[in-house]
Design brief:
about 120 residues, mainly beta, Seminal Fluid Protein  PDC-109 (Domain B), two-stranded antiparallel sheet, heparin binding, secreted
Amino acid sequence: MDVRKSIPFVTSPHIQHIFSFPEFVDRDCVFPFVYGDVTHYNCISIHSDYDWCSLDTKFQGRWRYCTGQDPPKCSFPFFFKQKIFHHCTKEGYIFNRSWCSLTKNYNRDRKWKQCSPQK
């Protein structure tokens, strides 16, 4: 049996069963996505042995395992100027768009990415 077939599952207080869903291999991850009432900006390993992502902004059973080609991950919390950020921020971006640091210390490393337009 292939260990990578450890499929993410979702539970709900309104549903008494655990559901499994097949992997969608040739689709792009959607970031951020909501799973278990939590917004995720990176691939996660919740309920799985391997990192995976949702293919929808709110997890609806469509997912796939993450690969090295997936977008770089935000590093939360991160340090910028004299503040600690736990979410994407528009602070310091001249185009008034949300961004996040790819490392814990943006001041030192200066590595970042733009967050989704909804933020």
